[in-house]
Amino acid sequence: MMSEKIIEMINEWNPIDIYPLLEEEYEDEVNQIKEACGHSQTSEQLGEMIHHIFTQSFGQEFTKSREECNRMARKIKT
Predict the structure, then answer these.
(1) What InterPro entries does this protein's entry cite (predicted)?
(2) Domain assignments of the chain as residue spans, ordered by start
(3) Contacts of 37 (CB under 8 A, 6+ apart)
(4) Which pick of 31, 43, 64, 70 has the fewest CB atoms within 10 Å?
(5) 0.85 exceeded by the pTM?
(6) What does the alpha-carbon distance between residue 11 and residue 5 come to, in Å, rounded to a whole number?
């Protein structure tokens, strides 16, 4: 299922470097990303949404680049 795939990928990426990482640590963000998948046509659009989601959730703690978010979006889209 798509949800488990996204959870696994985001937890592996661990964009805020949370340790120890709980499986549901990024649950809100994963839910928003799942929703964004339905609205974004391209990986770049999804990457922008991922960057926005994590910036809104974590502010300055989130330091990943837009390109890193685009790479994650491409992985999710495949």
Answers:
(1) Apc36109-like_dom_sf (IPR023162), DUF1871 (IPR015053)
(2) 2-77
(3) 2, 6, 46, 76, 77
(4) 31
(5) yes
(6) 10
